[in-house]
Model the fold of this input.
Amino acid sequence: MATIERDVVIIGAGASGLTAATELRKAGLSVAVLEARNRVGGRLWTDIIEGAMLEIGGQWVSPDQDALKSTLAELGLETYPRHRTGDNVYIKAAGEVSRFQGEIFPVSATTEHELVSLIDKLDALVAEIDPDRPWAHPRAAELDEISFSRWLETQTDDREAHDNISMFIAGAMLTKPAHAFSALQALLMAASAGSFSNLVDADYILDERVVGGLQQVPLLLAERLGDDVHLGRPVRTLRWNDAGVGAVTDELQVHARRAILAVPPVLISRISFEPALPRRQQQLHQHLSMGFVIKVHAVYETPFWRADGLSGTAFSPYELVHEAYDNTNFDDERGTLVGFVADEEADAVFALSAEERRLRILTSLARYYGPRALEPVVYYESDWGSEEWTRGAYAASFDMGGLARYGAELRSPVGPISFSCSDIAGKGYQHVDGAIRVGRETAAAIIAAERPAAPAG
Done:
């Protein structure tokens, strides 16, 4: 087995790990990045499927994502706005299809009042939450003991208002049923984006895309790191003590003073630690789990919905595809729709045959856009739940009570081992922006620790 020596070994070549490695290299530290997959990017993945460029993983850039935007500028990458001209579509529980513009769905005056009231209440609570320390809120334990669904029931008896507010957190973000995570976890999700209002504004949270795909960020970072990035090298064992670490793969071993685990928390248990991680860390990781969502790509000869006066933006908590958008690539004559099927609905359709699942999903899209949606020239489902080195999407979140109980230790180093990924970010939680922020902060802490203290006097 080949053995190399480095100052820091980084496990995981996603945006967070590669950012950390880049910052460490800038500071003069030597690095090795070990990646289990045969590609870089983690949950960022742009590929050509049947002649169509599809962003299989993350893709959008929001106005507040300063860390991502500065990285895009540094790498010379350009962005373009998501198409949003025209009417949006909303489908009610009874199946009534309505067109609308703006942020509030076309619902009854009573339901609209309840929606606005709930958004105001959530914005007020979110303003009290520090996304980097949600567990420090005076009511953190209380808010972490009640599910988000139950909390909504204490605030309104309007079912449609409840279902729509729930959709923005449960289906669109955490991709878990609203009864499976706490109100505190929901508030963290909103606080990470600046406010709950930002989450319900698709024109804000899904503002821009990168020309050529967002995976270019990790690809270009890895290119700069060159031979220090090792693909197809899953770490089987991590030996550690106060003197340093030894990361062991099937064909390569890296000895280093420090290690960064830049992988989703659910994958940490795939590594055998010698000695074992402390009890507190073992417990923490058992209270985190990934969400589950199918990202559906449907490519058509033209963006036909635009001619019908539609923006491509569509919502309904009562549809199999609970949200969908115009996802047409930059300067592409063809039109692309992207839709999402989350949590329990995703479980249900994966019990079907591939053909029946496709028909069910396209039928749901057709309810928004009409019968032409049934006939894409390219159809593809991003199923991150079956990805061995991800196991879900979009990111990990705590079970009931877990955030207040363990959150403060999410990023606490264990000896020479540090942690870095979007799943443990505050601002930018679950997003590439958060991955980059944590990568920078983790690297900065290591650089500060590695530099000798200036002499006194």
About this structure: Confidence is low (pLDDT under 50) at residues 453-457. The chain has three domains: 2-42+215-277+414-450, 46-63+76-84+205-211+292-386, 105-200. The CA atoms of residues 242 and 415 lie 6 Å apart. The first strand starts at residue 2 and ends at 11.
